[in-house]
Specification:
The chain is α+β, with helices and mostly antiparallel strands. It has 2 domains: 113 residues, 3-Layer(aba) Sandwich (Rossmann fold), CATH 3.40.50.10330; 156 residues, Tumour Suppressor Smad4 (Sandwich), CATH 2.60.200.40. It contains 9 helices and 15 strands. The chain is elongated, with a radius of gyration of 19 Å.
């Protein structure tokens, strides 16, 4: 019988990593079940992408990403449009993907999914040449991601991002945007614009609350307003799951979105800073990735959920 092959890509700089002894014990279980397991550690930016792309080129059965959302994003970019499946052993500050699909942080439970989980083909989003699994957004949240050092993020987690975001919001306050996609163009002043492939924003708020992973569409949630007085009511309504259909909330679903601004805006993709731009082309990439999720998963992220 042909042995199935797995590459483990671990980011040693991620926070909340599993204990080495627990990880080795979990991987030993896979080897006992007939898996050939390769272990790789990243040493710098884009290492995870390169290692994942090599695994896909070698037609390995799966890659197990051990790290935060940024590490997972790099692996996704290496695996996109291949047949090699993405599995995740959650680490990092939040790990939104693990929350979205119910992957345990316990190493044994997460690693078991490689062998026992269910494989599903899902869509990805794309900004320029970069794919995203979760979301892309513009504005103060993206500026915060760019301003916070990896050390501060590991030490203070989401609080470091929150502080940096508040600081930038006081400087920036609003986004002057034109948004083209399905329907009439949107134009005006916004406090946030989020393009989601999944639903959770910052692991807490369901900003793109109607997003699905298998509909071939990107969901856009754009919040009109200016300053804190414009932002706070949106945050409260979103936290209460009452933002859709309310005044000032523009919600669209489209296969392609174009965001333009007279001034360069910070961009973040899956929680990683992606530079500044006055023009963003965001597209849905249908059926672009195979993911491993808990068997029998029922979720509104999927059409059968």
């Amino acid at each position: 019988m042909t042995r199935r092959r797995l590459r483990v890509i671990l980011n040693p700089r991620s926070g909340h990593l599993p204990k080495p002894r627990e990880l080795l014990a979990a991987l030993a279980l896979l080897e006992q079940r007939g898996w050939t397991v390769e272990r790789r550690r990243t040493s710098g930016p884009q290492d995870a992408r390169r290692l994942a792309a090599a695994a896909a080129a070698a037609e390995l059965d799966a890659v197990l990403a051990c790290g935060g959302d940024g590490t997972i994003n790099e692996v996704v970019n290496g695996l996109a449009h291949s047949q090699t499946a993405l599995a995740v052993l959650p680490a990092g500050t939040v790990n939104v993907w693990a929350r979205e699909v119910g992957i345990s942080r316990r190493p044994l439970d997460a690693v078991r999914l490689v062998d026992e989980g269910e494989r599903r083909r899902i869509d990805l989003g794309r900004v320029g040449e970069r794919y995203f699994l979760l979301l892309a957004s513009v504005g103060s949240d993206a500026a915060a991601v760019g301003a916070v050092s990896p050390e501060a993020k590991r030490r203070f987690g989401r609080y470091a991002l929150l502080f940096a975001g508040v600081r930038d919001f006081h400087r920036r306050r609003t986004l002057a945007l034109r948004i083209d996609g399905e329907g009439e163009p949107l134009e005006g002043t916004f406090v946030a614009a989020i393009a989601g492939n999944t639903r959770l924003y910052a692991g807490v708020l369901e900003a793109t609350a109607q997003a699905r992973l298998d509909d071939g569409l990107i969901d856009l949630c754009a919040l009109r307003g200016a300053g804190w007085r414009g932002l706070l009511p949106h945050l409260v309504r979103t936290g209460l799951h009452r933002h859709l259909g309310t005044a000032g909330v523009e919600y669209r679903q489209a296969a392609r979105l174009t965001l333009t601004s007279p001034e360069p805006l910070p961009v973040q993709v899956d929680g990683e800073y992606a530079g500044q731009s006055t023009l963003l082309e965001i597209t849905a990439e249908p059926q672009a990735l195979t993911v491993i999720v808990p068997r029998g998963l029922r979720s509104p992220l999927f059409g059968d959920g």
